[in-house]
Specification:
The protein is an alpha+beta fold. Helix content is 25%, strand content 43%.
Length: 345
């Protein structure tokens, strides 16, 4: 009988102990905070490009402004912007009765004086030396007639405004029927197959740029497409009012790219091979020290780090992180050391 009572008490005790352990485990699970969602990227060895960042604008490497040289009425003009033109093709034509009349008069005068000059040469008594021929051209008026004819021909030819290279019409300021005067801007031609980026850099960044450097050019209008260009020229002077100078970047032919488009540019000024790199966004500053959070066994562990050069969104790590370790890149600004995290890349 006593043995049965003791056995019963043992069973009850074990049951109570088991219940207590489950309650303690449940309590611990209740007290453990839920993991915080973060993103992370593994530290890796790669080439790091140190860059100068700026913004620029796409321009055409060749632009021709078309202006009237004479007064008259526009009788020929492009109909639409974007029309292609060939080198030497007439783009605008200006009708001027005055220039045509002057050319006719000058041509007639030249023919008359030329006939007189030839007559004098045929009837000259003596040796017809170059000096005598020059004197006869002067006395017969042939020299003046040649000058007047050349001027009239130039003025008449100025009625036709031609393209100086293959391109497209980018602007039309004059239409058929308009009366224009010398200097009136008629339109513009650009070369859409030869584009470049012009960027203004402050004097500190300008001195780091040289011809031939690689440039990463990101174009927002083309869905943030990034292309590689080359520094074509660096201004030899600094504008004292802006304390800046111009850099011109050559671009490859890119379908859909247009003159006037904005760009983000990264000029490569130094290249560092075999660097352990992490995203710049992973780096925090606490107590005036650079640090990062590394994911270890589902928890965020802070590490003080020693950083090297940076560029294109990455920074080299000299101490504090090993290759392959995941560093937290977002959701880490309010993290505490050893906080539970869940990587949700």
């Amino acid at each position: 009988m006593i043995r049965k009572v003791i056995s019963g008490l043992s069973i009850v005790f074990l049951m109570l102990a088991a219940c207590g352990g489950e309650e303690e485990e449940a309590e611990r699970e209740t007290l453990e905070p839920s993991p915080l969602p973060v993103t992370a990227e593994a530290a890796s060895v790669d080439t790091l490009f140190e860059v100068v960042n700026s913004t620029g604008r796409v321009t055409s490497a060749r632009t021709q402004s078309l202006s009237a040289m004479i007064q008259g009425e526009v009788v020929q003009a492009p109909e639409y912007e974007g029309e292609e033109v060939r080198d030497g093709e007439i783009v605008f034509r200006i009708a001027s009765g005055e220039s045509a009349s002057r050319l006719t008069s000058a041509s007639s005068s030249y023919r008359n004086t030329q006939a007189l000059y030839e007559f004098e040469c045929e009837n000259y008594r003596g040796e017809l030396t170059p000096e005598i021929q020059s004197m006869l051209r002067q006395t017969t008026g042939l020299t003046d007639a040649q000058t007047n004819l050349a001027g009239a021909q130039t003025q008449y030819s100025n009625s036709a405004i031609t393209a100086s290279f293959n391109g497209v019409i980018s602007d039309i300021s004059a239409r058929e029927g308009m009366v224009v005067y010398p200097g009136t801007v008629l339109g513009e031609i650009i070369d859409p197959w030869n584009l470049q980026v012009e960027v203004s850099l402050d004097e500190r960044a300008l001195v780091q740029c040289i011809q031939g450097q690689r440039v990463y050019v990101t174009i927002p209008s083309l869905s943030d497409t990034t292309i590689i260009g080359t520094v074509a020229s660096v201004s030899p002077i600094i504008d004292p009012s802006l304390r800046a100078g111009k850099v011109v970047i050559e671009l490859p032919v890119i379908p859909g790219l247009r003159s006037g488009a904005t760009t983000r540019i990264e000029i490569v000024i130094a290249v560092y091979a075999n660097q352990l790199i992490i995203p710049e966004e992973a780096v925090l500053i606490r107590d005036d020290r650079d640090m990062v959070f590394v994911v270890e066994d589902g928890h965020a562990k802070w590490r003080q780090v020693t950083l090297g050069p940076k560029g294109r969104g990455y920074v080299a790590v000299e101490e504090g992180v090993a290759e392959g370790e995941p560093v937290i890149t977002s959701g880490h600004y309010s993290l505490a050391h050893d906080a539970p995290v869940a990587v949700v890349n």
